[in-house]
Amino acid sequence: MSKQKSQLTTFTLPAGDTESSASGDVIKKYLFHWPLFVLGVILFIILAFFYLQVTKPTYPILATLEFKGPTSSEGTVINKNGDNQQLDPISTPVIVENEIEVMQSKKLMYKVVNDLQLWATYKAKDGGVDLYKETPVKFSFVKAVGTIDGKGEKIEVILKDANSFTLLDNESGNKDYAYGSAIKSSFGTWKLTPTTNFNSFKGKTIDITVSDPDQVADDYQTRVKVELENKDAPFVNISTSDQVPSRGKDILNELMAQYKEDAMSSKNRDAQKAIDFITLRLDSLDRDLNIDERQIEQFKSAQSMTDINSQSQGFRDISQANIKANNEADVQLKILNDIEKTMNNPKNFGALPPTSAHLEDPSLMALYEKLTAVQLQKAQLLATTPETNPLFDPINQQLAALQKAFKDKITAMKASQVAIKEQIAKFQSGIQTGLKKIPEQDRLYTSMKRKQESKEKIYTFLLEKREQISLRYASTVSDSEIVDDAHAGKAKWPKPAIVYAIALLLGLASPIGLLYARESLNERISNRKQIEDAVNVPILGELSYQEDTTPIVVTQGRGKFAIGEQFRVLRTNLSHLHGNNEKGRVTLFTSSIGSEGKSFVSSNLSVTLAYASRKTIILEMDLRKPKISGIFNLSPEHPGISDYLVETHKDISKLIQPSGIPGLDVLGCGPIQPNPSELLEKNKLDELINTLKETYDDILIDSPPIHLVTDSYIIARTAGAVVYMIRQGHTLKDELEFINGVDEAKRFPKFTLVFNGIKRDSFNYGYGYTNSYYSSYNTNAVEEKDTFGSKIRTFLRRF
């Protein structure tokens, strides 16, 4: 068992005797060393005075830049129509992270340094004030030679009058020079020219330091910070600090101007490259298109083509017309053959030949009408006159002549129709030959046209793209915009009032620092003040360190009276914490790490509660590393909480063990389970606690450290109060921040602390250490007079 603790100061009595005694001890200790406080204050006030004399105030400088364009990690932009615009570098999205690196680059800072000539600094000899923008003369190189060393080249001049100055040189002697005259030095040829501020510095000495621009750029580059304020909003904060506010503002403003100029130049350069590339490609396509168009022209000329679709349609129309004409000729021939056959038939001699409305020849129709008229006349005469009558001779002659003429006309028309058919057949043959050639012509023409149209599309696209880029190039705007120009804040340091106040505090605190050097270097908590300063959680009590290894100290005799009384006070404070003396009070004991005394305190407090006639049970809820059973000499093999939670034992009464102390029972851990956190999440734990509340006045839960496992967080839902152990010389100070976080998160109900294992002498906790601690340093010394020096020496010996 660990050695344990007590001396209780309650959180409910801040003005009680214990607190008053501790405060009195601290005051006595400090008053004893009052000469050291006086010396410390005087020393630090003097140091503060000289610090203010030599320290130049530094001003924070801040500017804000906004990126207007879209941000992307890709090198492509998709416009609203979904067109890929890789050929348009002006529309490329801004990648803010990349731009931040550009703004922090050495290249830009080097330009800023050269443009502002920051490599040359001017200071007045009297006071050493930096004369940025107020310098009476301006240094400039006529010709730089070699490099400048890291410390820079120092030039000291006296401004005699408006025409000349004196160059101070300890080696070669002082020389006078006219303004604007070239002066040769080891680092190059240079000159000085007066500025508008010259009259204010006439006759004064000016120190000029010329540094290497590379080193100056490196220095300013490290001082400039570029940060993205919010990843969702493209605002970039640019900050630096400078003892001369105007210089700091100029640096940031010039940096932003150089960045914008460089970005615009880069964008325009990329745009010009794109335009040049597109123009070159357009020239190549233009030549190819000319060649393709000539080939198409030659092909059409050779094939006698105008438009292949119209030409093929024409051939089809002519072919249809020929077919129609041939059919009409066939009809005419059939009609003529029928008429001729009728007239040549002996049976039909003298009969009127048949005719047709389809006969198209007017002369034939005229003959037919005459023939019809003569035959009609003959038929009328036959009705009254015999056929042998001489009157029929002229009619028969006329009729014969008309019939002969009619037959001759039919023969001539037949010959004409046959000739027409032959001509149509010959012409149709040519048309068919032309139609057979059209598919091949169409294939060749389509192939040539496809190549020409493909190149023409590319040509048109590139032509439009070049115009778009040219228009953007002519009206290019920056992707960034200055939201806030560089502005300087108020100098926060050094401020005389604050410096002297700090000096006073340091003068008073230095003796305290000396006295508590060991404590300050100690990473572990050594006194209550450290706890109270770091956390807002009330302290339930303090328990002093116990040399004895007996785990249950309150059961011992008179030698343990003090520690027993401390636990009784803790019992009283716990009662006040719960606010009542009713049954079923549940108190959870935990800590940050192991060996902080939670098992010791919970077990001894349970004994004091039992002695106060409160029926008490202590739960060994550290299911990973149980200790309570060992403290009360109980068997760890006995079924316990884990058995109940896994429901292998449902009768709680069979799990509870008597501790050997009247009124105090123990509910052990039971077998170690592989999943204690999951078991504690079950509702069975709530059932267990609720059942115990019906029987017991106080239920004390010994739980695992919360900085190692989450079990205590889970169990806390069943507790009415949580007591958190801090052990002097063991608990790390870093744990106080963790405790504060637990308190702010409201993870525990009625959250209090117990400061355990206090060793007062070892940790200077109180005032009783002084005489015995320092006496050994001067046992053989002669008694000294009570002087200021002797007090100092006494203080040093006692330290």
TrEMBL record:
PANTHER family named among the record's database cross-references: FERRIC ENTEROBACTIN TRANSPORT PROTEIN FEPE (PTHR32309:SF13), TYROSINE-PROTEIN KINASE (PTHR32309)
Enzyme Commission numbers on file: 2.7.10.2
Span of domain Tyrosine-protein kinase G-rich: 441-519
Name of this chain's protein: Polysaccharide biosynthesis tyrosine autokinase
GO molecular function, one term: non-membrane spanning protein tyrosine kinase activity
Keywords: ATP-binding, Kinase, Membrane, Nucleotide-binding, Transferase, Transmembrane, Transmembrane helix
Top-level EC class: transferase
InterPro entries: Bact_polysacc_biosynth/exp (IPR050445), GNVR (IPR032807), P-loop_NTPase (IPR027417), Wzc-like_C (IPR005702)
